[in-house]
Design goal:
By secondary structure, the protein is mainly alpha-helical. The chain has 4 domains: about 110 residues, HUPs (Rossmann fold, 3-Layer(aba) Sandwich), CATH 3.40.50; about 110 residues, Glutamyl-tRNA Synthetase, domain 3 (Alpha-Beta Complex); about 70 residues, Orthogonal Bundle (Glutamyl-tRNA Synthetase, domain 2), CATH 1.10.1160; about 80 residues. A 3-stranded parallel beta sheet has the order 1-2-3, covered by helices on one side. Helix 2 links the parallel strand 2 and strand 3. Helix 3 packs across helix 7, helix 10 packs across helix 12 and helix 16 crosses helix 18. The structure holds glutamic acid. The site of glutamic acid has 7 residues, from loops. It comes from Sulfurovum xiamenensis.
Length: about 425
């Protein structure tokens, strides 16, 4: 079983989306379940509605999942498992005050050695619980440090060994009884039987702790891991909320379509048989272990050209619906503009003026009025050359006096694709167009 475990603390990023895509794809290839777990334990950072937004995005990318849960639903399980570790003496109660811990950390800093928990409370077991609660003494629960190094099996980075003292005796249950992030995550992965965790490189330092938790909880079937290299912006810095294009919402708002975004994210840092592909195609050859070990650079221009390519491949009628039509010819018309436009928004800025009332003011005003009259009174003419000949004859205009106003009245713009290609597609709308 694989999972996507987003935190509802901000807009879904392309890094999150890449993680969702890869988890979905590998689950599909292995024919195992794929679940979504919203990690909502950080009450202060959670933003209302972000979970729904994340699920809407997953829906738009058509990533079917077997279940959706919120991590907070499992709170009592996390607490029960922490108490079990206490009772088995694999964890201990710690009443060290923040001042004491601070002092120890300062001392480590002064001695230029990494901070490790002193072990002061390590003999305090479950038997103390009752007394501490009665006396209202605040305490946390710490898991005991491992006594051997922890090995992380990473499908991209290989095996990574973390010394036991680096994992240390860390907190699994906070003073308010809530689980810490690593504890909740490890428990939930264990309960769901997650066999492969695909997530961001940011999480790499948490992995040994989570493996240690699962080991002490007696979980035998440890998972493999894949920590995906970072996505960098053009300046070589990790993409963050400062980069507009890091948000999936921003990409949608700017007219990028799911098929193209997915294509680009699968292509990034990957060796693929072609640059343009669909999800069903990618499912045939996608292989996590072939992904680049080093960070990848996000390039909006490549995404733009991939977007244009997917718009070109889109069914004509479906494309027309993006502009409020249900007419394959309008889809074909939009495709004529893909030389100069790459996104839905850019295409819309070309299509809209064709059907909008024309601006009859300016240099070509008189010629446009003449043409409007002629077109409004003309019979239905199928062929563009015959149409052109009819207006030429009726208006007596020629050269630039003819072509520029004709283009303006038919498209609302001075430049664009060949009128001979545009005309057959807008012909049924001519009375609306030329006005
Ligand atoms: N909730 C974490 C995040 O959104 C991911 C944790 C994980 O995949 O293990 O960054």
């Amino acid at each position: 079983m694989l999972r996507f475990a987003p935190s509802p603390t901000g807009d879904m990023s392309i890094e999150d989306l890449r993680i969702a895509l890869f988890n979905y794809m590998v689950a599909k290839q292995k024919d195992v379940n794929f679940i979504v777990r919203i990690e909502d334990l950080d009450k202060e950072r959670n933003i209302t509605g972000k979970d729904t937004e994340i699920m809407d995005i997953i829906e738009k990318f058509a990533l079917p999942h077997d279940s959706v849960s919120h991590q907070s639903e499992n709170l009592h399980i996390h607490q029960t498992l922490a108490i079990r570790l206490l009772e088995e003496k694999k964890a201990f109660i710690c009443t060290c005050t923040p001042e004491q811990l601070n002092e120890e950390q300062e001392e480590a800093k002064y001695n230029k050695v990494p901070y490790r928990y002193s072990g002061r409370c390590s003999a305090m077991g479950a038997e103390e619980l009752h007394k501490l609660k009665e006396e209202k003494i605040p305490f946390v629960v710490r898991i005991k440090a491992p006594d051997a190094p922890i090995i992380t099996h990473d499908l991209i980075k290989g095996d990574i060994e973390t010394p036991a003292d680096e994992v240390d005796s860390f907190v699994i249950l906070n003073a308010d009884g809530t689980p810490t992030y690593d504890f909740a995550c490890a428990c939930d992965d264990m309960i769901s039987g997650i066999s492969l965790v695909i997530r961001s490189e940011d999480q790499l330092s948490n992995t040994p702790k989570q493996i240690h938790i699962k080991t002490l909880l007696g979980y035998e079937q440890q998972a493999d891991y894949t920590h995906l290299p970072m996505i960098l912006n053009a300046e070589g810095k990790k993409m963050s909320t400062n980069d507009d294009a890091s948000s999936v919402k921003w990409l949608f708002e700017h007219g990028f379509i799911p098929d193209a975004i997915a294509n680009y994210l699968i292509l990034l840092g990957n060796q693929t048989p072609s640059e343009i592909f669909t999800m069903p195609e990618a499912l045939k050859w996608f292989d996590l272990s072939r992904l680049s070990k080093s960070p990848v650079i996000f390039d909006i221009d490549t995404l733009r050209s991939i977007n244009a390519e997917h718009l070109k491949q889109m069914d004509d009628k479906r494309l027309s619906t993006l502009f409020g039509f249900a007419d394959a010819d309008i889809g074909k018309l939009a495709k004529l503009y893909l030389q100069e436009a790459c996104t839905i928004n850019e295409l819309e800025s070309k299509i809209k003026p064709i059907f909008a009332p024309k601006n009859f003011e300016g240099k070509w005003s008189a010629q446009m009025h003449t043409m409007e009259d002629i077109i409004q009174n003309a019979p239905m003419i199928n062929d563009f050359n015959a149409f052109k000949a009819h207006i030429l004859k009726e208006s007596g205009l020629e050269g630039e006096d003819f072509f520029t106003p004709l283009r303006l009245i038919l498209t609302g713009a001075e430049h664009g694709p060949e009128l001979s290609e545009i005309y057959p597609l807008i012909k049924p709308y001519l009375l609306e167009v030329a006005s």
